Amino acid sequence: MTEVGDLAVAIGSPFGFQQTVTSGIVSALGREIPQLIGGEEYKVVVDLIQTDAAINMGNSGGALANIEGKVMGINTLIISPNQMYGLMPTSVGLGFAIPSDIATNIANQIIKYGKSRIPIIG
């Protein structure tokens, strides 16, 4: 079971640098992140794992694992001050991952139904 303070390893290919590994901790659980769609409407991505392991563009879809190598989640998004200025977001220690149990449920739905019945996944 994932807990706040657990060591976290983010695996991915940031900016095309394949098989990159960064480390940090699980900073929080159950985060909700609002995202703008079409001007003023918002959707909310819920139940995310927050980590301070460096996650950059190209890490999305990679694993967030614990120190034993068990996948805790799938790296999904970051929050960066650069986004406020229309610049490419870069890691400032606010990375988020979809918990592995939710990702597994979504994958099973896609296999069974050809699509996910969960409307918002990140």
What do these coordinates show?
One of its GO terms (molecular function) is serine-type endopeptidase activity. Keywords: Hydrolase, Protease. Helices cover 11% and strands 42% of the residues. Strands 1-2-3-6-5-4 form a six-stranded antiparallel barrel. The longest helix has 14 residues. With 122 residues, the chain is mainly β. It is built from one helix and six strands; from the N terminus they run ββββββα. A hairpin with a 5-residue loop joins strand 4 and strand 5. It has a single domain, classed as Trypsin-like serine proteases (Thrombin, subunit H, Beta Barrel), CATH 2.40.10.10. The mean pLDDT is 85.
The CATH architecture comes to Beta Barrel
Radius of gyration: 14 Å
Q: What is the end-to-end distance? A: 22 Å
Counting structural domains, the number is: 1
Strand proportion: 35-45%
Largest sheet: 6 strands, antiparallel, barrel
CATH homologous superfamily placement: Trypsin-like serine proteases
Named CATH topology: Thrombin, subunit H
Q: Which sequence of strands runs across the widest sheet? A: 1-2-3-6-5-4
Helix amount: 10-25%
Low-confidence stretches: none
Elements, N to C (H/E): EEEEEEH
Coarse shape: globular
Mean pLDDT over all positions: 85
Structural class: mainly beta
Annotation, overall tally of beta strands: 6
**Tally of separate helices:** 1
**CATH structural class:** Mainly Beta
Keywords: Hydrolase, Protease
Pfam families: Trypsin_2
GO molecular function, one term: serine-type endopeptidase activity
